[in-house]
Amino acid sequence: MSTLFRIFNTSASALTAQSVRLNTIASNMANASTTASKPEDAYKPKHVVFQTVLDAADPNGVAMPVRVRDIVDDKCDPIPAYEPHHPHANEEGYVFRPGVNVVEEMANMMSASRSYEANVEVLTTARALLQRTLQIGQR
Predict the structure, then answer these.
(1) Which ranges carry the Flagellar basal-body/hook protein C-terminal domain (predicted)?
(2) Per-residue pLDDT of the chain (139 residues; tens, 9 = 90+)
């Protein structure tokens, strides 16, 4: 397989991985203000773990696809808040909110979005190069 086609594979795998990352971040942000009566019931923020995949057909390592290895729960503790009139308050008047840092999640979303856009540009450029290569013989 030519290097140009490996670039398509690598960028496509990165688009898929960044899409999963964006969905995970969106889930964290959507659940940032949820509450629970017990700490163990509070939403746990999630993070995506990427892994590069070595291509045996590419000994030079020019194109290394990426994949989602795992989606892991954050180890942060839920945040207790004293709200005795809240419907989810426990006997002591506390509710537990997830340890989602919305500012950090927004920064992660911007990073994932930019990575996604960059890979779209790589695909667009590789496609244009391939089209120009095919037009060489037509002149």
Answers:
(1) 92-136
(2) 466 678 888 899 999 999 999 999 999 999 999 999 999 999 999 999 999 887 666 666 556 788 999 999 999 999 999 999 999 999 999 999 999 999 999 999 999 999 999 999 999 998 998 888 888 877 6
